[in-house]
Amino acid sequence: MAVGVLALQGSFNEHIAALRRLGVKGVEIRKPEQLQSVTSLIIPGGESTTMAKLAEYHNLFPALREFVKMGKPVWGTCAGLIFLANKATGQKTGGQELVGGLDCLVHRNFFGSQIQSFEAELQVPAIAAKEGGPPTFRGVFIRAPAILEVGPEVEVLADFPVQSNKVADPNYALESQEEDNTGTARKVIVAVKQGNLLATAFHPELTADTRWHSYFLKMVCEVGEGTSSSMCAPGEELSFYQTPKIDLPIYQ
Ligand code: GLN
């Protein structure tokens, strides 16, 4: 089995390395016809405007939309989440083309500019329940988006408390919401699943904790039930079921 990784721009190499750590091959996808050779796809983080321009140049949008519509598993991280969203706000003037499919409203650069990037321990009960390991996950947020609204089909896998003084967008109306005594006004959503689609606002490929990749691979196996792939064969001890390793950023 091989997982496609959209390789126009951004952190596609890091995703391929994370898949490799789980014993799975990642295949770089740059052209529409290459999507036919894979049954699942990761859309990495990067710069969604640039990525959209390159995707348009390579005429990838129709093939990507078809891929999503066919029910094939697709995981978008950060800019990839923006790609998958049905609606985005905070875009450059004129907007940008989206693949869509994920019933949510995403806010680009929700937490501010590059210099306001941060790491935070996220509560990830659904991931810990399925993958084991600690109940939290180190979220690396790089000029990250946040999900502000989701449709009824969307399962929220992680959210994040936002302090009103940390929201970069002055138009974002936190004032109307009650703050508690820690200054926490509300939570934004940072990881979701909707059927064949998975999306995270942060970058799991930049940590050594492979549970999100493992979770996605299980989605791939579930969709491709009956697949001949040895990775999904029942009763086998799969390499990606291993106990997660200690979470250290891969850049340390
Ligand atoms: N803010 C970026 C964008 O809009 C996404 C950042 C990322 O992928 N790390 O594309």
From TrEMBL:
This is glutaminase. It is an enzyme of class 3 (hydrolase). Keywords: Glutamine amidotransferase, Hydrolase, Lyase. It catalyses: L-glutamine + H2O = L-glutamate + NH4(+). NCBIfam families: PLP_synth_Pdx2 (TIGR03800). It comes from Actinidia chinensis var. chinensis. It comes from the Eukaryota. GO terms for biological process: pyridoxal phosphate biosynthetic process; pyridoxine metabolic process. L-glutamine binds at residues 46-48, 108, 142-143.
